[in-house]
Amino acid sequence: MPFLTPQQPPGVGFRDLKNVDGPANGVADVTRPPSVDEVTVKNRVPVVRLDVDAISDAVAARLATSLLGHVLYLKNQVPFPVGQLGRLPGANANTRAAKQRAELLASFDTLSSHLDTTFTALSTAFARCQNSSLSSDSVAKSLPPNTGVARAYLAILVGPSLSTPKSKVILTVDGLDARIWGQREESSKPEDGDVDEEVDDDDDEEDHADNHTDSDDQEEPEDSDEDDEDVGEPDGDTDSNEEEDTAPPSPPPYTSHAEEQRFLNSADRLLSRTLAGADTESYGLSAELSPTQTHILIRAPRRFSHPAWIPRQNVTTSLEAVLHEFLDESLQRKVADAVSNQKSRSAKQKKGKPEGVWLACRDGINPDLTLLQDALEQRPNIAEDDEMIWWSWDGKLVGFSDW
After folding, report:
1. Domains of the chain
2. C-alpha–C-alpha distance, residues 81 and 79, integer Å
3. 273 in Cβ contact with 281 (< 8 Å)
4. Which residues, in sequence order, are CB contacts of 386 under 8 Å at separation 6+?
5. What's the rounded mean pLDDT across residues 276-296?
6. Please, which residues have CB within 8 angstroms of residue 140's CB and are 6 or more apart in sequence?
7. What is the pLDDT of residue 281?
8. Could you tell me the pLDDT band of residue 277, with boundaries at 50, 70 and 90?
9. Which of 118, 153, 87 is nearest to 316 (CA)?
């Protein structure tokens, strides 16, 4: 199945995304060859390939919300797509079906708003982990050159509890933009101590300059002007260089709300087309399950902080096994699992093997992120704040069938 890109990406990306300008006729380039890892994934899980250098927190949050809506419908947790549930006519709002629908829509809307800030906090946590790792020379040498991105995982478990899921769907964000949000505002505010020291230094320099000028006038009155000019030139160059080095990073280019929404809508449509194509190729996410609860989890370091997410140390071991099983299957890391994928599709669903979707950048799935993940998580004497655990959303999503 070919991997599509949005047909009309905006000319200017938002935040730190750099979109590739399309050809003059407005038709997107669909001939770019997939990466090596992407070839091994394409017949096992859907891959959404965006035309960006890095996946921002806004894009990750939007597609995670969209994928959850698709999973709820494909797993038979709602009778209609989530976007249509709010437009269904209801004769009596006091019925059990109407209350269940209202509760699910309210929870879905709350989760959608939480995901917007969740991936921002996750991006910051990944950036801090990478910064702490780069402080060690032995670890820094083992890291790939481009460490400004990370690989994030979100799990959607459909089942009565976290320990007994009937279906497991993993969203892999391959290339999440890792940056410390809010650092520019903090660095631009001088501390009181620094201001006082600068004032004292200026006073000392003025006193020293006055004394030096008096002595020059007495001893060398003729050459004093030329000497001052010669000495002053390199000082000006040094000051300008220091200002350039210490200047805070420039803000990301401005993008209007309309341009941002166009890009998000294009990515949303690409996800829908990819899932539809995967279903026709017999590796989609459809399954007939009875309505039950749906649990949302993310994999993040202990330093991650968000009020809507609860650390789940007790299920981390089991979820790590699910994640490794998904990666082994999708990346073909085990030869035995790569035989007769389509024929064994029904058997996999019966056994409850994990499914998933890959979200990748323009160059496809990045093998360097696998090396980066292994280097950060398997290094000796890992800091406690850098340890990866699973976190669950503190809300509740309950499916229903009546309408």
Report:
1. 36-180+252-262+273-398 (3.30.900.20)
2. 7
3. no
4. 129, 132, 133, 301, 302, 303, 376
5. 92
6. 133, 134
7. 86
8. very high
9. 153
